[in-house]
Write a structure and sequence with these properties.
Helices cover about 85% and strands about 0% of the residues. It is mainly α.
Length: about 475
């Protein structure tokens, strides 16, 4: 692959990962602060109400932005049609959420959900009018603008929500924060990008055809995320939902929450290689290997220190969520790799229907797994089942990918095995030294992090040396260090 292609791919990845890290850091601080003011029940209540809005959005997600990026030559008609589709989606989501608000409250047996859903409907309506210029910036590989708009919106929303929490000290602060975030997102999208869209239905049929594959995939993806929460609610109630939801947010901060924006940032670069399958496969394999080298140690490392981390960050009232964090951190790092292999790469290669089918297979199998897990061990069994399912589904994702682009399962496995072995070495090190660690929780956590990181790096680079220094993240780091004279 030529250097220009690598430059575009890694620049897009770097900007989106950087953006997501900043976003997750802001969200991380937000959760830490809010968890000490609000209760698990508050978080659980809002999480249940958000399920209603999320399902409505997944039922109407037409994939207009992806189609606009994938289309090679676009005109103003394409841009305005894509924006019009997005506006219609916002109107439809708002209507569905408002209509279903009462029934959601009945289904969850909590009347407080109905007024929350009405407010979330307003937020969805506002978001529908966001400027399509942000998608155009991504299409033109202007990731810096996307970074600025997204981070500024998130930061200002965080400040406003925190102020509301300190004032109201109830779950309503989280709900009103959604509306404020929607308003700020729309405002900044027009202030920071010059494009001014207009209503246009000229190419609406083309977008509707594309949506027939995208909408089923979005529904299945969203349902896959929310089925475990619904099962937890049926077994443990709203407080357990709050514990599980915050644990999931914490556990996925550095892994699966990065995988989605990573795919988003890589999509324009991959789209430019869509007519060159061999180069596309080579580029994706390098991205997958680098991603696994980051996601796996972060997820496994977080799981290993979860018992010390949770009370330090969230406070003693959240200690019951530590087992959730352990299992969901493991789940998140494996799910992130599965996500990379089965979403944007399949769409850009023209296999969006295959991605949709796989998403529904994942939903059905995960639903059965978490139900069985809950029967065995309640809410913790749900988290455990998620992890075991993700591991079992990994070879399925690799097989589907190998049949979609010229990349064999063996070549996929070779870029995953070294990070997995290095994670095993890290886990072994922490298990062996745990009884000798200091009692002070801050010092103990710091030592665990340092020892875990060192053991991972040693095993990763040692195994890389043994197999002949192949192409990958290790070689890139090695060359950078050599160039710097280290």
């Amino acid at each position: 692959m030529d250097k220009s292609t690598y430059k575009h791919l890694f620049r897009g990845a770097a900007w989106t990962i950087g953006m997501r890290w900043v976003m997750r850091f802001i969200g991380f601080i937000n959760v830490i602060i809010l968890a000490r003011i609000l209760t698990p029940e508050d978080f659980g209540l809002v999480a249940l109400a958000m399920i209603v809005a999320g399902f409505a959005e997944s039922f109407t997600e037409a994939g207009a932005q992806q189609l606009l990026i994938r289309t090679r030559d676009i005109t103003r008609v394409d841009k305005d049609t894509a924006w019009t589709v997005h506006v219609c989606q916002g109107l439809l989501v708002a209507a569905i959420v408002a209509i279903s608000a009462h029934w959601a409250a009945v289904a969850f047996d909590d009347p407080r959900i109905e007024p929350i859903a009405y407010v979330l409907a307003v937020a969805a309506l506002i978001l529908g009018f966001r400027n399509i210029g942000l998608t155009l910036a991504r299409r033109d590989l202007d990731f810096a603008l996307d970074f600025r708009i997204t981070v500024v919106t998130r930061l200002t929303t965080f400040v406003a929500t925190l102020a509301l929490v300190l004032w109201l000290r109830s779950y309503w602060a989280l709900v009103y924060g959604q509306v404020i975030g929607a308003l700020l997102s729309v405002l900044f999208s027009y202030v920071m990008h010059p494009y001014r869209p207009r209503i246009c239905f000229v190419k609406i049929e083309q977008y509707l055809r594309f949506s027939t594959a995208i909408i089923p995939m979005r529904i299945a993806d969203y349902a896959t995320k929310k089925v475990p929460i619904l099962v937890v609610n049926s077994f443990g109630g709203v407080t357990q939902v709050g514990l599980y939801n915050v644990a999931r947010d914490l556990a996925s901060t550095m892994t699966s929450e990065i995988a989605v924006p990573l795919s988003r940032g890589l999509f324009p670069g991959f789209a430019r290689l869509s007519n060159e399958p061999a180069r596309l496969a080579d580029a994706f394999r390098n991205v997958l290997g680098a991603s696994a080298s980051v996601f796996l140690p972060l997820g496994v490392g977080l799981a290993l220190v979860s018992g010390d981390l949770v009370p330090l960050l969230l406070g003693d009232q959240w200690i019951p969520s530590a087992p959730f964090v352990f299992w969901l951190a493991l789940f998140s790092c494996v799910a992130a790799i599965n996500k990379l292999m089965t979403t944007q790469i399949l769409i850009v290669s023209g296999h969006e229907r295959r991605s949709a089918i796989l998403a529904w297979v994942r939903l059905v199998c995960l639903s059965a797994a978490v139900w069985l897990g809950a029967q065995v061990n309640g809410a913790e069994g749900v988290a455990m089942a998620c992890t075991l399912f993700a591991l079992a589904f990994l070879p399925v994702c690799a097989t589907v990918l190998s049949r979609s682009i010229p990349l064999s399962v063996y070549r996929i496995a070779t870029v995953l095995i070294r990070p997995a072995l290095a994670c095993a070495g890290m886990a072994l090190m922490l298990v062996l030294v745990r009884e000798y660690l200091p009692a002070n929780p801050f010092v103990r956590l710091g030592v665990e992090v340092v020892l875990g990181a060192l053991s991972y790096v040693v095993v990763l680079f040692g195994s890389w040396q043994l197999v002949g220094r192949p192409q990958g993240l290790e070689k890139l780091v090695f060359m950078r260090l050599a160039k710097a004279g280290v």
